[in-house]
Amino acid sequence: MSLHSESIRMRTKSMQVTSDTIYALSSGGLPSGVAVIRMSGAKALEVTESLAGSLPAARQAVLKTIRTRNGLVLDRGLVLVFPGPNSFTGEDCAEIHVHGGKAVVAALLAELATFEQCRLAEHGEFSRRALENGKMDLVEVEGLADLISAETEMQRRLAMEHAAGGLSQLYDGWADRLTRARALIEAELDFADEEDVPGSVSDLVWSDMAKLRLELADHLAGADFGEIIRDGLKVVIAGAPNAGKSSLMNVLARREVAIVAEIAGTTRDVLHVDLNIDGYAVKLYDTAGLRDTDEVVEREGIRRALRTAADADIVLSLAEIGERAQLEFPGFTGRVVRIGTKSDIYPDEADGDYELRISSATGAGLAELHALLLEDLRGRSSSLSLALPSRTRHRTLLSDSLEALTAAVASISAGLDIRAEYLRRSANSLGRITGRVDVEDLLDVIFSEFCIGK
């Protein structure tokens, strides 16, 4: 089979799959008080009418008896229909709300499977159809996925900003400015003798492109904070054996995560808990005590501890009061907070250069540590806006766009055609963030993050 024939076959298969009516349980795990079965596609309303006997008015919930095509009563529940294109996917959609028993849902899904051209939805397929039908762009889709998985208030706010289109609006505005600049350049190249075309694009284009470059650079600088909100601030507890690392881990987590013992080298592997500090996600890591040792397993634990510290946002360097807290860690360039521990045992000890003195036994200094972490989080953002890039994909494409735009602005001696090409590359990278430019290779990965009913 030729490549052309194979391409046609794959496109035909894709069209057939897209033409199917899909359905899924969209309300989460069972049993539950209510289960929502969602449908989307050309036969959604026809199937719903067959099950419910008649269709309610659009976007109005009506109590109906749900029956099989043989007349067997499955349940009584609410039925809603959303005719396209005014629906989540842009297609005809319907929802049936029934009791959330496993047997009820299984029977209803089994009945839906008997209709021709109806099948169970794949992961993220509802959202993918919304993207393909122009109801959402790629950033909004990613924001929706993040909103579903958000565990803290700041994660929710960041995801809502993306899902509601705040970030997309910013990128679309920048893309429009790039498009207008390219149009003016093309006009000067092709119609320089026409009176309606400006004689020089310098004032009209390059001053605005220089401003855009600064805006883009400032926005990209917020990528670190956006990723921290989405993925969590990575805080590593490090220090010598018996410095109180595991005790601090347990008291911050408010449960016994790590084994605490007076025997040096008790912690051998990296332990991790997720914390919520005033709406911010914090990933806290307890590590093996750092010392010279010939014991093979302990040496591996120390190697892992140093590797984890190198990837941290903050290292809490613990030392028993009277000892010196470690200041440097291989490969780590971030903030090291020197903490003296066991202040209940050494209340009057003055030795040691510590930012904080704490006691995991009495709780002394823990409020100050909490405030320090919160201050660090808030200090990482220079803006009150949460229209921030939050994924590595965003950062990479923004960097590509900024690099091309910088080249366009800086290449003063180059021809207008070359500088216009740089602008095209910059706009192309921005378009790939929102999906305005072909991103087919990314879609399978992105939508695999979704649950079946979304």
Automatic annotation (TrEMBL):
<dbReference type="InterPro" id="IPR027417">
    <property type="entry name" value="P-loop_NTPase"/>
</dbReference>
<dbReference type="GO" id="GO:0030488">
    <property type="term" value="P:tRNA methylation"/>
</dbReference>
<dbReference type="GO" id="GO:0046872">
    <property type="term" value="F:metal ion binding"/>
</dbReference>
<dbReference type="GO" id="GO:0005525">
    <property type="term" value="F:GTP binding"/>
</dbReference>
<keyword id="KW-0460">Magnesium</keyword>
<feature type="domain" description="TrmE-type G">
    <location>
        <begin position="232"/>
        <end position="378"/>
    </location>
</feature>
<dbReference type="InterPro" id="IPR031168">
    <property type="entry name" value="G_TrmE"/>
</dbReference>
<dbReference type="Pfam" id="PF12631">
    <property type="entry name" value="MnmE_helical"/>
</dbReference>
<dbReference type="InterPro" id="IPR025867">
    <property type="entry name" value="MnmE_helical"/>
</dbReference>
<protein>
    <recommendedName>
        <fullName>tRNA modification GTPase MnmE</fullName>
        <ecNumber>3.6.-.-</ecNumber>
    </recommendedName>
</protein>
<feature type="binding site">
    <location>
        <position position="135"/>
    </location>
    <ligand>
        <name>(6S)-5-formyl-5,6,7,8-tetrahydrofolate</name>
    </ligand>
</feature>
<feature type="binding site">
    <location>
        <begin position="242"/>
        <end position="247"/>
    </location>
    <ligand>
        <name>GTP</name>
    </ligand>
</feature>
<feature type="binding site">
    <location>
        <position position="454"/>
    </location>
    <ligand>
        <name>(6S)-5-formyl-5,6,7,8-tetrahydrofolate</name>
    </ligand>
</feature>
<feature type="binding site">
    <location>
        <position position="267"/>
    </location>
    <ligand>
        <name>Mg(2+)</name>
    </ligand>
</feature>
<keyword id="KW-0378">Hydrolase</keyword>
<dbReference type="InterPro" id="IPR005225">
    <property type="entry name" value="Small_GTP-bd"/>
</dbReference>
<keyword id="KW-0963">Cytoplasm</keyword>
<dbReference type="Pfam" id="PF01926">
    <property type="entry name" value="MMR_HSR1"/>
</dbReference>
<keyword id="KW-0819">tRNA processing</keyword>
<comment type="function">
    <text>Exhibits a very high intrinsic GTPase hydrolysis rate. Involved in the addition of a carboxymethylaminomethyl (cmnm) group at the wobble position (U34) of certain tRNAs, forming tRNA-cmnm(5)s(2)U34.</text>
</comment>
<dbReference type="GO" id="GO:0003924">
    <property type="term" value="F:GTPase activity"/>
</dbReference>
<keyword id="KW-0342">GTP-binding</keyword>
<keyword id="KW-0479">Metal-binding</keyword>
<dbReference type="InterPro" id="IPR027266">
    <property type="entry name" value="TrmE/GcvT-like"/>
</dbReference>
<dbReference type="InterPro" id="IPR006073">
    <property type="entry name" value="GTP-bd"/>
</dbReference>
<dbReference type="Pfam" id="PF10396">
    <property type="entry name" value="TrmE_N"/>
</dbReference>
<feature type="binding site">
    <location>
        <position position="38"/>
    </location>
    <ligand>
        <name>(6S)-5-formyl-5,6,7,8-tetrahydrofolate</name>
    </ligand>
</feature>
<keyword id="KW-0547">Nucleotide-binding</keyword>
<keyword id="KW-0630">Potassium</keyword>
<dbReference type="InterPro" id="IPR004520">
    <property type="entry name" value="GTPase_MnmE"/>
</dbReference>
<comment type="subunit">
    <text>Homodimer. Heterotetramer of two MnmE and two MnmG subunits.</text>
</comment>
<feature type="binding site">
    <location>
        <position position="95"/>
    </location>
    <ligand>
        <name>(6S)-5-formyl-5,6,7,8-tetrahydrofolate</name>
    </ligand>
</feature>
<feature type="binding site">
    <location>
        <begin position="261"/>
        <end position="267"/>
    </location>
    <ligand>
        <name>GTP</name>
    </ligand>
</feature>
<comment type="similarity">
    <text>Belongs to the TRAFAC class TrmE-Era-EngA-EngB-Septin-like GTPase superfamily. TrmE GTPase family.</text>
</comment>
<feature type="binding site">
    <location>
        <begin position="286"/>
        <end position="289"/>
    </location>
    <ligand>
        <name>GTP</name>
    </ligand>
</feature>
<dbReference type="InterPro" id="IPR018948">
    <property type="entry name" value="GTP-bd_TrmE_N"/>
</dbReference>
<dbReference type="GO" id="GO:0005737">
    <property type="term" value="C:cytoplasm"/>
</dbReference>
<dbReference type="InterPro" id="IPR027368">
    <property type="entry name" value="MnmE_dom2"/>
</dbReference>
<dbReference type="GO" id="GO:0002098">
    <property type="term" value="P:tRNA wobble uridine modification"/>
</dbReference>
<feature type="binding site">
    <location>
        <position position="246"/>
    </location>
    <ligand>
        <name>Mg(2+)</name>
    </ligand>
</feature>
